[in-house]
Amino acid sequence: MTELRFPAGFLWGTSTSPHQVEGNNANNDWWRWEQQPGRIRDASRSGDAAGWWAGAAEADLALAAAHHQSAHRLGVEWSRIEPHPGRFDEAAVDRYRAILTEARRLGLSTMVALNHFTLPLWAADAGAWTWRRLPARFESYARFCADRLGDLVDRWITFNEPGVLALAGYGARLWPPGLGRPDLMFAAMARMIMAHARARDAIRQRRPDAPVGLVFNMPLFEAHRPRHPLDRLAARLEDHAFNDLMLRALKTGTLPFPLARTPTRVRGLAGAFDFLGLNYYGRFASRFALMADTPISRHAQSPTTRTDWTDWGQPCPRGLTLQLLRLGKLGKPLFVTENGLFEDGDDRRPSFIVQHVRAVADAIALGADVRGYFFWTLVDNFEWAEGWSTPFGLFELDRDTGERRPRRSAHLYARICRDNGLSTETLDDFADALHDDTEG
Ligand code: FCB
C-alpha cells in the first residue's frame, strides 16, 4: 500500500560537492584557508576527503544506484579545470568525463554545479567575487565546461548558495576570503548573479536545450517571540536580505538596493534560469538585537540538531513546503537540491527524511512543480568550517580504511527511492526508527 506516491519521473538522489569529496584540491582558496590555524572548528583539513578524485567516485555512485537513486548532483572544481587563467587541464576534463560517464552508465541523471563555494587561487588572489572581471572569467569557464562535458550533463547549476558564500566569506570572516564587510557581501551577491546570467547564456549558446539553474539556501526565518514586533521585523529583514534580494534580481532583471547603490538593470538577467534548486535545512528564530550577528552568520549553514537550537537553526519540515510554494510562484521547475542533518549516529535522520519527503509531497499537492529531491549527502565528507565533526552521510565513512557503512537512513531512503514515495510497509518496517520530535 502506498501512503505517498510522487509523480512519474520524479528524481531521487543525493548531492555532493567537489571540494568536500574529491580530496587534494590544493589549488583553491579553501585548501589554503584550511591550512591557517583557527579556521576549521575541529582543526581538521579536507585532505583526501572521500577519495573521489583518486578513484572512489565510481564506487560511491554505484552505491547510490544500488540504493535505487536515479540522479546525482555533483560539481566540477574550477581550480582543476582551469588551474591558470585561460589554461585548461585536459587530464581534469578526462577525470570528470570518466565520473560522469559512469554515472550515466549506472542510470543516474546528472546535475552538475560549476561553482560550489571554491575559487582557483588565481581568482582568489585577484579579489575573488570583489574582482570586477571575475564574471567574465566565470563565463569562459562555463563555456569550456559546456563544450567539453555538456554531452554528459543533464542539468547545469551555475552557483550553489551564492547567499551563504557572500554571508560567510564577505559579510563575515568564517570562510574565505574572510572579509567581514557587509557592503562587500551585497557586492559579491550582485557579482555572482551577474556571473550566473553570463554563464547561463554561454552554456545555452553551446547547448541550446540544456537546462541551467542555480541553487539557493532558503531557511525559514520566524520571530523568536512570535508576537514581538521587533522580532518580527528582524525575521522580515533577514528573510529579505538572505532569501529575497537575489530572487528579485533574477525575476525582474534589475539589481535592487543594496545589491547595487541604485536599482541597476542587467542585460539578459530577467528570467535567466530554467529551474531553481532549493537547499533547505531548517528554521531560524530571529531575535531583534542592536549590532547583533544574524543567526545565520553565527553558523553559515545552520544544519544541525545538536546543542543549542536557537543558535543553530532547527529542523522544520513545514518550512520546506513553504519555501517550495514561494519559489513555485516564479513559474519554473524546482528541485530540492539539498536537505539533511548531521549527527554522529542515526537517531534523528530517519524521521527527518520521512517528514521532509512528506513536506515535498505537500508542496506538490498545493501546486509546486517539484521534479526531484536530493538528500545531503551520500557519504560523510568534509563540512567546510566545521571540518569532519559533522557527519551528514547516508553512509558513514571510516577515514582510516575508506570503508563505507550504511546508516539505517540509507536503507530507509533506498525504499523511498525504489517506491517513488512512502509506502505503509516502509513506515511499518522502520517504525522503531521513526519518532515524532523533529517539527520545530
Ligand atoms: C550547504 C552546502 C553543502 C553542505 C551542506 C551541509 O550549505 O551547500 O556544501 O555543506 O550545507
Short descriptors:
single chain; about 450 residues; alpha/beta; TIM Barrel; 16 helices; about 40% helix; binds beta-D-fucopyranose
Descriptive notes:
- There is one protein chain.
- This protein is an alpha/beta fold and 440 residues long.
- The protein has a single domain, classed as Glycosidases (TIM Barrel), CATH 3.20.20.80.
- Strands 2-3-4-5-6-10-12-13 form an eight-stranded parallel β-barrel, surrounded by seven helices. It has a two-stranded antiparallel sheet with strand order 1-16.
- A hairpin with an 8-residue loop joins β8 and β9.
- The longest helix is centred in the middle third of the chain and has 25 residues.
- The protein is globular.
- The site of beta-D-fucopyranose has 14 residues, from loops.
